[in-house]
What does this fold into?
Amino acid sequence: MRTLRLLFFLALFGISSNAMAQAAVMARSDAQSNSKVDSLSTALKVLELSELREILSNSGQFTVFAPSDAAFKQLGEEEIKALLQPENKQELRSLMAYHIVAGKLTASRILQALSRGKGYASLTTIQGEELRVRLIGTDIVLMDCSGNEARITAADTTSRNLVFHRIDRVVVPAP
It folds into this structure.
C-alpha cells in the first residue's frame, strides 16, 4: 500500500515511469531488508499539504531531501499533528521548503561539491536558509542550523525535473 501511495505521488508530480520504477524497487528492497518498511509516505503527504506541488512540478529542477517515515516519528506524534493543522500551514511549508534545493543534485554532484570544499559544502534551500553538508565515512550528512544531522539513506530517485534523496531525520530551519 505504501508503495502505491509513493507511485501515486510520483505520477501526480509528473515524475517519469523510470523514477516510479526506481521508487518501487527502493520500497521493495526496504521491505526485504527491514520488516518495518521505512517509506516516504509521510514526507509525500506533508509535501502535498504544504502546497509545494506547483513549485516542484512547474518551476524548474529541484532536489528533495525527503525524510523517511521513521524520521518523522522522531519528531513525535503531537508535533506532527500540530504541523498538520490548517493554522500551521506556513510553518509546514517552511519546514518542507527547507528540505528542497533548486537544481538536480545527484549524490555524485554532492560528492563533487564536497571534494571541492575539502569535505564540506553548503546548499541554499528554497526556504532561503542554508543546509550544511559533510562527509562522515562514506555517508553524505546534512546538518541544519541547530546542528542536527541527517544521513542520506537512499539516493538518486530521479525524474525529468526532480531528484529525491531519502534522509533519516527531519532537518529543521531556524525559528
About this structure: The chain has eight helices and seven strands. The first strand starts at residue 62 and ends at 67.
